[in-house]
Amino acid sequence: MKHQIGPYRIYILLFLLILVTIEIIWSWKKDRGAYEVKETFANLAVFAGFQFSKYLFAGYQLAVLGFFAGLSPLKMPHNVWIFSLTFITVDFIYYWFHRISHVWKPLWAFHLIHHSAMHMNLTAAYRLNWFSAIISPLFFIPAALLGLPTDFIVISYVLNLAYQFFLHTEAVGTLGIIERVMDTPSSHRVHHGSNPIYIDKNFGGVFIIWDRLFNTYQPETEPVKYGLTTGFLSYNPFKLVLQGFVIWFKPASSSAVKESSTLPLEASPQK
């Protein structure tokens, strides 16, 4: 099985590399400045660490979901309808997981790194905390208790995150009627904006309908200023990963905490 999976992983990485290369060429030809050398290498270093962390925490994640699935009196079958239900349920849970990550300081500690990028490009999509796998399965326990197959939950979450990779770009403009249902690059650019009008908006993963239902939707109406509201953080991948925890454990009266109020809710979550 490992020999079968290995080549596909390489092909996926090559595909992502090709897309990044195309975007770099587009940015250069259009003089968009979507890439900055040091930040790009920082993104790639964070990406490498995140890939390693997946091996460390994979067993733990499956164990958590498997344990609670075992407690459920329901055992839903494996078919296309149940997979569709699981996919929608996972996306709904992701919306709330993402939204809470912006308002609750302990979760923001994990999420801050993703919003610290000063440029929007495909490599910023993998600016993810190496320890996020510790908390992410906890949010999907309700799906397991509902009797949804654990493998469907895992696959749905993987596909959800894979879809979001394509949202981190300035190369795609608005997409008309699709913007009403799906999360798009335009909607996600808004989410990464530190402009006052964009703070704490567009938390959806695949679908934007949750934002519309719960009044967190904001269309892209002005140029987006990316990054934390405090500006540049670091090129050091270790600082990027750990800074959220440093802020979390600092005394509430610390000026550093007050100044780090996050992108949307950066380090100083709203109540």
UniProtKB/TrEMBL annotation:
GO cellular component terms, A-Z: endomembrane system; membrane
Give one GO term, molecular function aspect.
Answer: glyceryl-ether monooxygenase activity
Which residue spans traverse the membrane? 6-28, 40-60, 80-97, 128-148
Record bears the keyword Cell membrane: no
Keywords linked to the UniProt accession: Lipid metabolism, Membrane, Oxidoreductase, Transmembrane, Transmembrane helix
**What name does the UniProt record give this protein?**
Sterol desaturase/sphingolipid hydroxylase, fatty acid hydroxylase superfamily
- Does the record's keyword annotation contain Oxidoreductase? yes
Q: Where is the Fatty acid hydroxylase domain?
A: 85-216
Any Gene Ontology biological process: membrane lipid metabolic process
UniProt cross-references to Pfam families, sorted A to Z: FA_hydroxylase
Species source reads: Mucilaginibacter gossypii
PANTHER family (UniProt xref): ALKYLGLYCEROL MONOOXYGENASE, STEROL DESATURASE-RELATED PROTEIN
Q: How does it sit in the membrane?
A: Multi-pass membrane protein
Q: What is its main location?
A: membrane
Q: Where in the cell is it found?
A: Endomembrane system
